[in-house]
Write a structure and sequence with these properties.
Number of domains: 2
Number of strands: 10
Structural class: alpha/beta
CATH topology of the largest domain: 2-enoyl-CoA Hydratase, Chain A, domain 1
CATH architecture of the largest domain: Alpha-Beta Complex
Shape: globular
CATH superfamily of the largest domain: 2-enoyl-CoA Hydratase, Chain A, domain 1
Strand order of the largest sheet: 1-2-3-5-7-10
Helix content: 40-55%
């Protein structure tokens, strides 16, 4: 399928989605959101894909957020429809069955910061910067994503001050999983994707679903949710003798099973 505002590549078991409006700092236009959402849908439906990497074109921005110029010329009805579409795509991405990795190649401001916190994992570089700008424009977002990543006090600070969070601080607070030089970012993400792709797909989907469904539950209920899943949908794929065949063979010095 051809796209106007994004690029989609398949690297082995990885779908790489690139927001491709570098001259607009990868601003989230209505078309980009629609194409992005379709690309995620396609990756979810493709059994050959184990994980999804998301980044922005160019070396300045992951995404500067909503397309302000597009919004300025829109009617109130068009703005309402666009906002509903933004909620839909954000929830779809957050609950995507497959693990998602954000490569934060530059600034992630406003809606771009929300997008960055909607993916499961984030890799950044010295250019990465976050800014949650909604309150400055009389709006609200990221209240349902950011506290789960950095804690409630830090989330409230960032959401209410709308200040810039530079890469090193973002890494210290856990907003970035990894902080590497810019030229190593994509390879770091691809390696993470390769590791994910080596594992049981049913368990990958089940683990993500469990972690997300457990948000807000007591520790005991989290335990019981996992136990229930293991006894039903997430029963072990094979008997221990089969599951650990490769490990046991290596311990005995045998040739690796083919």
């Amino acid at each position: 399928m051809g796209y106007d505002t994004i690029l989609v590549e398949h690297r082995d078991t990885i779908a790489l989605i690139t927001m491709n409006r570098p001259d607009k700092l990868n601003a989230l236009s209505t078309l980009l959101i629609r194409e992005f959402d379709q690309a995620v849908t396609d990756a979810e439906a493709d059994d050959s894909i184990a994980s999804i990497i998301i980044t922005g074109a160019g070396d300045k921005a992951f995404s500067a957020g909503a397309d302000i110029h597009e919004m300025a010329g829109a009617s109130s009805e068009e703005i309402a429809r666009a906002q509903a579409a933004r909620y839909d795509y954000a929830w779809h991405l957050a609950t995507c069955a497959k693990p998602t990795i954000g490569v934060i190649n530059g600034l992630a401001f406003g809606g771009g910061a929300l997008l960055a916190t909607t993916v499961d994992m984030r890799i950044g570089c010295e250019r990465s910067r976050f800014r949650f700008l909604a309150a400055q424009y009389g709006r609200v977002n990221s209240t349902w994503t950011l506290p789960l990543i950095v804690s409630m006090p830090l989330a409230l600070e960032m959401l209410t001050t709308a200040r810039v969070v530079e890469a090193k601080e973002a890494y210290r607070m856990g907003l970035l999983n990894h902080l590497v030089p810019a030229e190593q970012m994509l390879e770091e993400a691809l390696e993470m994707g390769r590791l994910i792709g080596q594992n049981d797909r049913r368990m990958l989907h089940g683990i993500k679903h469990l972690v997300q469904q457990n948000v807000g539950l007591t520790w005991e209920r989290m335990f019981n949710q996992e136990r229930k899943a293991v006894d039903s949908d997430l029963q072990p794929t094979a008997a221990p003798k089969e599951s650990f065949k490769e490990f046991l063979a290596q311990r005995r010095g045998e040739a690796r099973p083919q």
